[in-house]
């Protein structure tokens, strides 16, 4: 992130000088088996619906100590403070005042007693806050999609590596067994040579055209916009009060990339995993002929000829010379040489899904040559990686490669051009593409250099 160096230094110095002391919890709150050196102090940035789930998961871990929340809306700041306070009050059986609250993420990052941050802001803020967090020496769990642009994806990887941080992308499908089994079937050649993949999710982003509404009391709208263009407040972008739904800022290019970056960051991530492309990516983007109005049909082509086609139906299907594998949350369907080996489509019957996955592993993967990273808990995997100082299941490089697929697909819809891509250089190739498409215009002091 590019802030004026003097401004950033003075801001952090003033923050620390303000007397912000480490929050110490009574020792009886912690489980006896939790070793002191495994405890992690957490700050939570962006207290919306997604963060509610993340906070619940992390605070339930004995090695996590929540100490701070940050949001540009005072209602959501208070909600975050309430969640932490009630959690520890219940755990300790005594009154607990909760966490410190911040409107500006830089104040939270300025606290040296905070080890780790969780970022669940709107997408247009992800890279700036995450890069600032690496510079402040924090380990990071950041929601997908990781970035708003192709350039930000590489800048974030570079910053994480430079500052030697542990970084988990919130693509939690990697920690769901059905996706791992599906990808292991594909990677071990159970359905033969892969010819194509279909990845289903919603439409690309559109320019924001929402009318201005009366400002929300208690919301710093200028800070909500941050690097995005200035425009009037609208409750679709930042719902009033404490909302219980996923806001639709994600539909607009200024703050997200439509469902191509939203759900696409999940399913294109699984396509990458199944194709063994975690350190690479496609070499060409092929837009549909009706790209101006299309909501699906774009394609990503890989160097081996495999094409990933964006379809509307949710899920991921791998097509091979000897069969097919379809996978979605709580669902899997496997056909091998004309025989149906699994078909489970009721995501609410976990025991039945487990039985089918057991059968698939027993029949096809008992002696598999390719064994993928296995995680049953995305948050715990992050905590384990912090303890070992290792890379978690969805390290920043993986998240960056997956969001790159999303951005490339969107560029096809936005501009209607075939684009060649060099995944080694992370740049356009063959004289295609426009360098301006790698980044975006930043407003005011906010910039990813």
Sum this structure up briefly.
This protein has 449 residues and is an alpha/beta fold. 34% of the residues lie in helices and 17% in strands.
User: Order of SSEs, N→C?
Assistant: HEHEHEHEHEHEHEHHHEEEEEEEHHHEE
Percent range for helical residues?
25-40%
Mean pLDDT: 92
Identify low-pLDDT runs. 4-36
* Assigned CATH class of the largest domain: Alpha Beta
Named CATH architecture of the largest domain: 2-Layer Sandwich
Alpha-beta content class: alpha/beta
Ends apart, CA distance between termini:
6 Å
CATH topology of the largest domain: Dihydrodipicolinate Reductase, domain 2
Number of helices: 13
Main sheet overview: 10 strands, mixed
Tell me the Rg in angstroms: 22 Å
In spatial order, strands of the major sheet run 14-13-12-11-7-10-9-8-15-16
The CATH superfamily of the largest domain is identified as Dihydrodipicolinate Reductase, domain 2
The outline comes out as globular
DSSP E strands, number: 16
Task: Indicate how many domains the architecture comprises.
Answer: 2
- Estimate what percentage of residues fall within beta strands: 15-25%
Q: Could you explain how this protein is built, in words?
A:
The protein has 449 residues and is α/β, with parallel strands linked by helices. It folds into two domains: 5-16 and 28-172, Rossmann fold, CATH 3.40.50; 173-204 and 260-374 and 397-434, Dihydrodipicolinate Reductase, domain 2 (2-Layer Sandwich), CATH 3.30.360. 34% of the residues lie in helices and 17% in strands. The chain contains 13 helices and 16 strands. It has helices at residues 5-17, 49-59, 74-92, 105-109, 126-135, 150-162, 177-187, 221-225, 258-262, 264-275, 350-365, 378-388, 396-415; strands at 40-45, 64-70, 100-102, 116-119, 139-142, 167-169, 194-200, 284-286, 299-301, 307-311, 315-320, 323-328, 331-336, 339-344, 419-422, 427-429. The strands form two sheets. The protein has a ten-stranded mixed β-sheet, with helices on one face. It has a six-stranded parallel β-sheet with strand order 3-2-1-4-5-6, with helices on both faces. A hairpin with a 2-residue loop joins strand 12 and strand 13. Helix 2 (49-59) runs parallel beside helix 3 (74-92), helix 5 (126-135) packs parallel to helix 6 and helix 7 (177-187) packs parallel to helix 10 (264-275). The longest helix has 20 residues, at 396-415. The protein is globular and about 60 Å long. The termini are close together. Residues 1-31 form the signal peptide. Residues 210-447 form the Gfo/Idh/MocA-like oxidoreductase bacterial type C-terminal domain. One of its GO terms (molecular function) is nucleotide binding.
């Amino acid at each position: 992130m590019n802030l004026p160096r003097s401004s950033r230094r003075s801001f952090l110095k003033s923050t620390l000088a303000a007397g912000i002391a480490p929050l110490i919890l009574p020792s009886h709150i912690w489980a006896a088996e939790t070793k002191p050196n495994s405890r992690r102090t957490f700050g939570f940035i962006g207290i919306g619906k997604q963060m509610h789930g993340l906070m619940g998961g992390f605070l339930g871990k004995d090695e996590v100590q929540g100490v701070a929340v940050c949001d540009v809306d005072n209602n959501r700041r208070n909600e975050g403070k309430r969640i932490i306070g009630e959690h520890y009050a219940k755990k300790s059986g005594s009154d607990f005042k909760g966490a410190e609250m911040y409107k500006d993420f830089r104040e939270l990052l300025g606290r040296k007693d905070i080890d780790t941050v969780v970022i669940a802001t709107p997408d247009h803020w992800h890279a700036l806050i995450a890069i600032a967090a690496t510079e402040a020496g924090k380990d990071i769990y950041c929601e997908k999609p990781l970035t708003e642009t192709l350039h930000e994806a590489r800048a974030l990887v570079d910053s994480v590596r430079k500052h030697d941080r542990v970084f988990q992308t919130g693509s939690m499908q990697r920690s769901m067994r059905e996706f791992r089994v599906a990808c292991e079937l594909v990677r071990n050649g159970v359905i033969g040579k892969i010819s194509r993949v279909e990845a289903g999710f919603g439409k690309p982003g559109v320019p924001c055209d929402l009318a201005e509404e009366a400002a929300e009391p208690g919301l710093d709208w200028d800070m909500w916009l941050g690097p995005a263009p200035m425009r009037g407040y609208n409750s679709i972008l930042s719902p009033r009060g404490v909302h219980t739904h996923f806001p639709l800022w994600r539909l607009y290019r200024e703050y997200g990339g439509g469902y191509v970056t939203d759900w696409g960051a999940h399913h294109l991530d699984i396509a990458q995993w199944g194709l063994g492309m975690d350190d690479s990516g496609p070499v060409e983007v092929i837009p549909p002929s009706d790209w101006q109005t299309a909501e699906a049909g774009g394609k990503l082509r890989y160097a081996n000829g495999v094409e990933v086609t964006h379809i509307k139906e949710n899920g991921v299907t791998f097509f091979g010379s000897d069969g097919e594998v379809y996978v979605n949350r709580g669902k899997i369907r496997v056909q091998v040489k004309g025989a149906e080996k699994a078909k489970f489509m009721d995501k609410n019957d976990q025991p039945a899904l487990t039985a089918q996955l057991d059968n698939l592993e027993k029949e096809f993967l008992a002696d598999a040559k390719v064994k993928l990273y296995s995680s049953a808990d995305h948050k715990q995997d992050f905590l384990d990686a912090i303890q070992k100082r290792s890379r978690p299941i969805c390290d920043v490089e993986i998240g960056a490669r997956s969001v790159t697929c999303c951005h490339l697909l969107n560029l096809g819809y936005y501009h209607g051009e075939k684009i060649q891509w060099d995944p080694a250089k992370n740049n356009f190739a063959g004289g295609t593409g426009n360098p301006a498409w790698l980044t975006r215009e930043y407003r005011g002091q906010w910039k990813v250099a």
